[in-house]
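Researcher: Structure for this, please.
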Amino acid sequence: MTTTSSRSGTVGQPGADGLPGVGLAEVAEVAGRIAGNVSRVLVGKPEVVRVALITLLAEGHLLIEDVPGVGKTSLAKALARSIDCSVSRVQFTPDLLPGDITGMSIFNRQTSEFEFRPGPLFANVVIADEINRASPKTQSALLECMAEHQVTVDGATYGLASPFMVVATQNPIEMDGTYPLPEAQRDRFTARVSVGYPDAAAELAMVDDHATTEPLDTLAPVTDARHIHAVTEAVRRVRIGPEVRQYCVELVGITRRLPELRLGASPRATLQLVRAAKAQAALAGRGFVVPDDVQAVAVPVLAHRLLLTPDAQASRRSTTDLVRSLLGRHPVPSPARPAG
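Model: Predicted structure, C-alpha cell format:
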C-alpha cells in the first residue's frame, strides 16, 4: 500500500557567518525548528530526534528499529511532515513487488508505446513502514536508489528528487512473516536508532496530548525541500582536519579486526561517519569537526553494520556495546581546529 503527498514552499535567506549560501547559524536554526516539531509527537526523546536530524543533514537514510507501539512510524511521519516536500509512504507486505516501489512501464494503447509510471520512490522523503515484511527481492529494489539516488527500470535510468531520504521502520522482535534485512541493505542506512520506551513523565504527557487530538494531525511544515537542500550544502562545507579523518578511518578499521565480529564496517561506513560528524558539528554551530563529534555519532552510524560471532551472541554482547568500548579504548586526537 502506498500513499503520496506533495507540498511546496519558499527558500529562507542565506546566513551571514562567512560561508557562501546558507550559513551555520541557519543550519542550527532550521534543525531546531524541525526538532521542536518532531518533539511534539515524540515526547521525551531528544537523543532520537538528534540522530534523525543528523541523518537528514548528512543526506543519508534512517533505520528506526524497535518493538511495536513505541513511536517508530510516528517519528518517521513527524520528520516527513516537518518538511514542505513530496512525501510517500509504503506499507511493506510479503506480496509487495519491486515494481510497486520503483514504478513500471505500462503499454499505452493510444501511442502504442510503453510509458514509465513512477512509483513511490519518486519523492523527497520515502517512509518504508515495516521494511522487513517484504521479500528480499522487493527489499533489493531499494539498493540502487539509496546508494545512487536513481532507479533503473527496463534498462532505463531515472534520477530521483533532491533531497532524497528513506526512513524505514522495522520490528526486531517479531519473526513470523518477516525477512531480515541483508547486510548490503543495512549498510546503506546512514544510522540506526531505537526509540525505546518513554519514562513515566513522558508517557503521562503523551496520554494528555492524545486525549483530545492527534499531534500528527496538527503538525505543520517548518521548512521546505529547497531549503533543506541549501542546508545540506552548508553541512558539506564543514571542514574536517587530517587528524580527525585519520581517527574515523582507524575506528572503522578496528571493527574489521575485532575477534567478536564476523563482519566489520565497510568503507561506506567511513564515509557516512565523516558526513554524520560534519552534521553534528554543524548542529553545534561549528565550521569544523572535533573528535567529540565523531564519538557522538559513532554508535548510531556503526553498530547496525556489524555482525557478531556466535560466541559473542551467546555471551549476550551487542554491537552497541562493542562500539562504545572501542570509543573508550582508542586514543583520541587533539581537538585542534583545522586550518583554512
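Researcher: Any notable elements?
Model: Residues 24-41 form the longest helix (18 residues). The first strand starts at residue 2 and ends at 5.
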